[in-house]
Design brief:
purine biosynthesis; 3 domains; alpha+beta; globular; Rossmann fold; 383 residues; Dna Ligase, domain 1
Length: 383
């Protein structure tokens, strides 16, 4: 694509931290971003050309975005694929990844069925709509099991462990809608692979180890502390997942490494993902630059690792919602090869993702210990 000033414009549905980091990656490429988000002055606004204020199902906002863009993409799965598809056809503005991919991803049961049919290894699962169906499924799968809302869940929301028959009714009440139940996987570690689909190209970033607590990602370690055979199998599974996806872009593929070193798919995100934030410092091309390249149909960048890299989320450590004022960042600035990423959110609440810290070096184990100490020194508490 020939560069002019202003350059090509990407319209992004969603203007949270992912939109912000897409904007940071697009600027050096001569690419401009316009984002659409229901929250005025959303986190992406300081680094993009403009924000359109509108909901994730607002057809008029999507149409206005399409009229200003060469291509549309999204950084949040709440975008309505039907509206995106209709607006794309009416304005002749391509959408990447394709709305059909978003439609597939939004329903976890549909997603699992499609991937299982394609031969992607997944945990055993069942669709359940009632407590009776959940009880019958758990008798087949065994306790404990994991109940998941089919739509809308993220960061542990919409996931309810079911330890025994006496928890079935309460679990269904918590989900309060159509659900899917999976066998509880006895995993050695959780892994993630950022997959990339370009114009006739596909690639993956290095396999990453992801460390969760309370089902929220806390740290990422790259390369993963797994054997070469396990990492290669994880990459193979991620490539098989990409074969099911339609359209161009970056996809977060979350995986389990089981106790006997099998790889099972957990979930997919059709966008840059938290588990790939480390690529900003850790790779020659970040996941965000790669997504911009991909949706515009430009050649993909190299996914080569620069150095071993670890990343840790900065989460809200408060008891209730308050103005976001972080303390302790001086220690990050004073540490060599440490990098602070602040998402610009105005308010903090318990476990909200407010930013992340990345470190690069030689030994992931030592880096992780140092990183945790830095991250734990950051606080939003005023007492």
């Amino acid at each position: 694509m020939t560069r002019t000033s202003p350059g090509p414009t990407v319209g992004v549905v969603g203007g949270g931290q992912l939109g912000r980091m897409l904007g940071e990656a697009a600027a050096p490429l001569g690419v401009e971003l316009v984002v659409a988000d229901p929250t005025p002055d959303c986190p992406a606004t300081p680094v993009v050309r403009d924000q359109l204020v509108g909901g994730f199902e607002d057809e008029s906002t999507f149409r206005a975005l399409a009229e200003r863009a060469d291509v549309l993409t999204f950084e949040i799965e709440l975008a309505d694929p039907d509206v995106l598809e209709r607006v794309a056809e009416e304005t002749d503005t391509p959408v990447h990844p394709a709305p059909e991919t978003l439609r597939l991803i939004q329903d976890k049961l549909v997603q699992k069925r499609r991937l299982a049919a394609a031969g992607v290894p997944v945990p055993d699962f069942r669709g359940v709509d009632t407590a009776a169906e959940l009880r019958a499924a758990c008798e087949e799968l065994g306790y404990p099991a994991m109940l998941k809302a089919r739509t809308g869940g993220y960061d542990g929301r919409g996931n309810v462990p079911v330890s025994g028959p006496d928890e079935v009714e309460a679990a269904m009440d918590d989900i309060a809608g159509p659900a899917m139940v999976e066998e509880m996987v006895d995993f050695e570690r959780e892994l993630a692979v950022m997959g990339c689909l370009g114009d006739g190209e596909r690639d993956t970033f290095p396999v990453t180890e992801t460390i969760h607590r309370e089902e929220i990602l806390r740290e990422s370690v790259a390369p993963a502390r797994a054997s070469e055979a396990v990492s290669e199998r994880a990459r193979e599974v991620a490539l098989d997942v990409l074969d099911v996806m339609e359209g161009r872009g970056v996809f977060g593929v979350e995986l389990f490494q089981t106790a006997d070193d099998e790889i099972l798919l957990n979930e997919i995100a059709p966008r840059p993902h938290n588990s790939g934030h480390w690529t900003i410092e850790g790779c020659h091309t970040s996941q965000f630059e790669q997504h911009i390249r991909a949706v515009l149909g430009e050649p993909l960048g190299t996914t080569e690792l620069r150095d071993p890299t670890v990343s840790a989320n900065i989460l809200g450590d408060v008891d209730e919602r308050r103005t976001a004022t972080m303390a302790g960042e001086e220690s990050v600035f004073a540490t060599e090869r440490a990098h602070l990423h602040w998402y610009g959110k105005r308010e903090v609440y318990p476990l909200r993702k407010m930013g992340h810290v990345t470190m690069t070096g030689d030994d992931c184990g030592e880096l992780l210990a140092d990183l945790r100490e830095l991250r734990d020194g950051l606080t939003f508490r005023s007492d």
